[in-house]
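Researcher: Hi, I'm a grad student and pretty new to this. My advisor asked me to get structures for two proteins we've been looking at. I'm not sure of the right format, so I'll just paste the first sequence and hope you can take it from there.
Model: That works fine. Here's the first sequence with its structure tokens right after it:
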Amino acid sequence: MASIGITSEAFSKPYLRVDASGNAEVGWTVGGRRDSVVIPASGQLYHSRLSGPDVSHPTSAVAIPYRRVLRRTPDGRLWALQAWQTAWRGPPELRFSRWRGQPTSITLSLKKTGRSTVLAGRATFHGRPVSGSYRTNGGALISLAAQLDCFACPAAHGRTWFRFNGVKTRSGGTFGSGLKAVWMGTRFRATIVGPNSGTTLAPDAARIVTAS
């Protein structure tokens, strides 16, 4: 498991609650209908609601990309909802994470190699490389990979973001991709799903670099 995908429907009004036992409730609205799941302190999520009071409170202790909700509990843990386009095409996916300390981070740069331009970076969480794989709620095994987007590139057909590649991270958390002419935009972005460590579900990370 990594950060948890909650829904990819056209959701609105997401919220997050956490009880004193460390169980979280995530709710959202789709087409006027409210839905919610409970993510227990350990184990698989299920459709329900918490019976106890919410012990979390809003915080701005850290900065995370695609933030919808960020809360902290008395034990110092951080809890977040993020939403971004995890699939190559389609609506944003609502995702849940819980962790302590600093969030997942990415470095990103453009490098010239002869006539080629390479977009390269490294993803880490608490100093450890983000690599390997994780399982979805449905049990599918997914490789941890950096999703790469270009802004205002010819392939985007306008001033918008375009997903042009997805590259697995290497054992050291590094990744890279050469850039075709149709991918040459004014900005580039790398986004990666946060890894897991036991019951820690690290938040997703992103970095943007501007073309010179």
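Researcher: Oh nice, that was easy. Here's the second one.
Model: And its structure:
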Amino acid sequence: MAPTFKAALAEEKDTMALGAVLASCLEPGLTIYLRGGLGAGKTTLVRGLVRALGHPGPVRSPTYALVEVYEFSRLHLHHFDFYRFSDPREWIDAGFRESFDGHNVTVIEWPEKAGAWLTPADLEIRLEMSGEGREATLTSNTLAGQKCLALLERRCAPSSTST
């Protein structure tokens, strides 16, 4: 069974805080899939992550642009959203292959819309509604993902659990 980590996210600020902690665990080359329905908090998590990395401006959902690129001194982050894809070949047609060069951190909303063309995820984050709030389940799929998850686990509040 792949290592997992769960966090209760009672409010939007908790989702932002999880993103901020995740930011401190990122290494270049990491690929992260974000899963969850509309309104689950995927972009909010990325907003917390990008703000913690030092971006002072707005953090937009890339639903229409397909990708937002953020460049920081220690890494470049590419935030993708493939919600509008109707065929996985659109990923190839969009010319995003060069973003997955092992140097960028790639965070992908709706990865299933790109099918098998995508690089496998090092870390998958599922956000789901839970009562009045949300729950995040993070699963590592590679050694890089395990390293990230272990760092996250050490830095998170006691309200989270790991398995």
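Researcher: Is there anything I should tell my advisor about the second?
Model: You could mention this: The chain is about 25% helix and 30% strand.
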